[in-house]
C-alpha cells in the first residue's frame, strides 16, 4: 500500500518554507495591491520559526502538525497565521493511523474545514480556500480513481494553481481585501497564492520520495 512517512511530511513543510521564501516578494506584491503588503513577510517569518522547531524532528505526524500549527499561530500576527495554524492543527489528529492517499486527503480536508470554521469564508470570497477547496476535490477524484499519494498530490497542486488564478476576477468578501470592495477585482488573492505553494510543495515532496 502506498503511504507517506512522517519524514515525507517534514520534507513537505520544509519545501513549503523554501517556496514561500522564494516567492516572498511576489506574495507581498499581491498583498500590496489588495491588502497591507505583508503576506510574504508574514508567511516567511512564520515558516522560518516552524523550521527552527523541526530539529530534532517530530516523531509522528500529529506531533509535527501540532508544532507547525502552534508556531504559526504564535509567530504570525496577520490573518494568515491563525488560519494556516488552524489548518495544520486540524490535520494532525486525523493522521493517527496508516497514511495512505485517502487518509492524507481526509487530513487535508479537515485542515481546510478548520480554515472555513475559523474564517467563515465561502468559496468565491477570494481567499485561501479558493485554492484549497479545488485541491481537495482533485485529491478525492484521484483517490476514487485508485491513484497513489504522489499522483493525488500532483493533481491537487494543479487544481490549487487553477483556483489561485481563478481568484483574480473575484470581489473580496473576507479579510482586508474586502475593504476595497469592487476595487479588489483584477488581482490574485495572496493567500490563494500561498496555498497553491502549499500544495505544490506537497507534490514536490512526495514526488521526491526515495
Ligand atoms: P493580513 O490580512 O492580516 O495582513 P495576510 O496578509 O498575511 O494577513 O493574509 C491575507 C490572506 O489571508 C488573504 O489573502 C486571504 O487569502 C486570507 N484571509 C483573510 N481573511 C480570511 C478569512 N476570513 N478566511 C480565509 N482566508 C482569509
Ligand atoms: Mg496582509
Ligand atoms: Mg497585515
Automatic annotation (TrEMBL):
<dbReference type="InterPro" id="IPR012737">
    <property type="entry name" value="DhaK_L_YcgS"/>
</dbReference>
<dbReference type="InterPro" id="IPR050861">
    <property type="entry name" value="Dihydroxyacetone_Kinase"/>
</dbReference>
<dbReference type="Pfam" id="PF02734">
    <property type="entry name" value="Dak2"/>
</dbReference>
<dbReference type="GO" id="GO:0016301">
    <property type="term" value="F:kinase activity"/>
</dbReference>
<keyword id="KW-0418">Kinase</keyword>
<keyword id="KW-0808">Transferase</keyword>
<dbReference type="InterPro" id="IPR004007">
    <property type="entry name" value="DhaL_dom"/>
</dbReference>
<protein>
    <submittedName>
        <fullName>Dihydroxyacetone kinase subunit DhaL</fullName>
    </submittedName>
</protein>
<feature type="domain" description="DhaL">
    <location>
        <begin position="7"/>
        <end position="204"/>
    </location>
</feature>
<dbReference type="InterPro" id="IPR036117">
    <property type="entry name" value="DhaL_dom_sf"/>
</dbReference>
Amino acid at each position: 500500500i502506498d503511504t507517506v512517512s512522517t519524514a515525507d511530511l517534514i520534507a513537505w513543510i520544509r519545501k513549503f518554507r523554501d517556496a514561500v521564501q522564494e516567492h516572498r516578494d511576489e506574495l507581498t506584491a499581491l498583498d500590496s495591491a489588495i491588502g497591507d503588503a505583508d503576506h510574504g513577510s508574514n508567511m516567511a517569518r512564520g515558516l522560518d520559526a516552524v523550521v527552527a522547531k523541526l530539529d530534532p524532528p517530530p516523531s509522528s505526524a500529529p506531533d509535527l502538525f501540532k508544532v507547525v500549527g502552534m508556531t504559526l499561530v504564535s509567530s504570525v500576527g496577520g490573518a494568515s497565521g491563525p488560519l494556516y495554524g488552524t489548518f495544520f492543527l486540524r490535520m494532525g489528529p486525523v493522521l493517527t493511523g496508516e497514511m495512505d492517499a485517502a487518509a492524507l486527503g481526509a487530513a487535508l480536508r479537515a485542515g481546510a474545514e478548520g480554515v472555513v470554521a475559523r474564517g467563515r469564508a465561502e468559496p468565491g470570497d477570494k481567499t485561501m480556500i479558493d485554492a484549497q477547496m479545488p485541491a481537495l476535490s482533485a485529491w478525492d477524484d484521484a483517490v476514487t480513481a485508485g491513484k497513489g499519494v504522489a499522483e493525488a498530490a500532483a493533481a491537487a497542486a494543479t487544481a490549487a494553481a487553477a483556483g489561485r488564478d481563478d481568484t483574480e476576477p473575484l470581489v473580496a468578501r473576507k479579510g482586508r481585501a474586502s475593504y476595497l470592495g469592487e476595487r479588489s477585482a483584477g488581482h490574485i488573492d495572496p493567500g490563494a497564492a500561498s496555498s497553491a505553494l502549499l500544495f505544490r510543495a506537497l507534490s514536490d515532496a512526495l514526488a521526491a520520495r526515495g
